[in-house]
User: Fold these one by one.
Assistant:
Number 1:
Amino acid sequence: MPVKNRFAELLPEITAWRHDFHENPELLFEVHRTAAKVAELCRSFGCDEVVEGIGRTGVVAVIKGRTDTSGKVVGLRADMDALPIMEQTGLDYASKTPGKMHACGHDGHTAMLLGAAKYLAETRNFDGTVVCLFQPAEEGGGGGREMVADGVMDRWNVGEVYGMHNWPGLPVGQFAIRPGPLMAAADQFEIVVTGRGGHAAKPHETIDPMVISAQIILGLQSIASRIVDPVKQVVVSVTTMQTDSPAHNVIPQVVVMKGTVRTFEPAVRDEAERRMGQIISGIAASFGATGELHYHRGYPATVNAEENTGYAIDVAAAISGPGAVQEAALQMGAEDFSFMLEARPGAYIFLGNGNTAGVHHPAYNFDDNAIPFGASWYAGMAESRMPVG
Ligand code: NI
């Protein structure tokens, strides 16, 4: 199973869809135009069922195989949303909406899954059912979580799920993946340190929340360096600091800090949260101040099931050759396909995008040469997991 020849024929059409999405980027759950086009195309392919409005603006397209003796249902997922970035690519199909841009290649993911859907609806060369999951709001809105919460897995009996992301720096035609955790859980926090303000020249009459906050920031570094097992991964970054003091000669009353925690294992995540609370309240109390932690759990870690990772590798290797499938490095970035992988076993794979600018950069663009590889992988996952005969 090399690249499917049909995708060479479909390439101009798939590329045209991609460029249309690129020109018309939409953010988070507001992917109304994109979702409508996805649904319309899936109906035109003859998909057996197309349902809009799943997880607010997600689209589900169901394709039945030639036979269904396996009773299996394979979910294939693509994300549809863009980013609030001012595009600087100079492309003739660049964003028509200033301040919005497909800077993460979700236009490419959606187009490739549409291509796979068209091919699978034409050929039906599998024994079971394919459920295409087009999700909104990957970039921070938790569209994957919304689709799962909307019952997408149970409603269509999805047994396993597969997703893909393009990867700048990896040559086009190559893949990268790893079993187990691949991308991190991403949590946010807010710390409020309340002391007693006063004249900056009379610090002894105040409880200075600035100095206390500085010690808290340093104390939090011990979570990675002294609390969590050094062979496990954790990042605690304090990224903003605000006070209620407008002046160089006023010690503030309150300091508010914000930041993010990244982990791979639930136990490490729990420990980071628990120890942050202790460090913050303990350091603050030792100076007579109060320190509060408000911890908000975001996307969980993206964890590839061992067996399904093997299936994903086999399909990628069949398309591009075994030498073209690398072991991916752990990524501290997060991905909300993690919610689907919490609900069902499956795998998430990186697809080479060549030497482009990085994702979320104003000069980034998805490489259309990657389309036949990505579309073949989606279709190949369905065919190989539900072989006919
Ligand atoms: Ni992305």
Number 2:
Amino acid sequence: MPRPYTYRLIAPSLLAADLAKIGEEVARAELAGADWMHLDVMDGQFVDNLTFGPPLIQCVRASTGLFLDVHLMICRPDHYLQRFIAAGADLITVHLEASHDVGQTLQRIRQAGRQVGLALNPATSLEAALPFLDQIDLLLCMTVVPGFGGQAFMPDVLEKIQAAAAIRAARGLGYHIEVDGGIDCVTAGPCAAAGANVLVAGSATYGAPDMARAIAQLRHA
Ligand code: DX5
Ligand code: ZN
């Protein structure tokens, strides 16, 4: 089995879909070749936007076999965790900057048999994540300040991605490195070259005239 991070995965973000027809929009991504479905949960406090929660994820779970990559941009991931597990998330990513005992939350995700993700805002240094790297399946390096789709990619984050890949090699770890925010066929290449293998894209997938073509471009950029 190759190390998980050696293959590229494309994760369309449902945030950019037409939410009036969620089932069709998930199926559209699946048919277009998506590897994962990225689900952005926002609570209006951790970020200045509100999206959806466990009931919607449960409906998506019932409608697709796609791997569900749930990105929690909420202040208290520990409080809501069990509901996202019950809703059928395959991977749950929590923010290091949220108000919780990070190590304990990661451990609870693991104990529930789900994959474990840790997210860092652009301003958060990789040093802050060092104590947790051996607990995770995925490190999400945000490439925009989270909260909204359609923002411009922040190239300064590339250095953090390179450092995260170097530390992974030095410690013999196997976590994916995911990027999220402003990823398109121009920014995907530099991210992949820096070491990212999971590419989240909202505008560049759902907003494209031909999603299959857009996903193929992201995969080969
Ligand atoms: C931003 C979200 C992203 C967002 C990406 O806070 O975490 O997942 O949907 O959207 P684009 O690809 O349009 O930047
Ligand atoms: Zn996201």
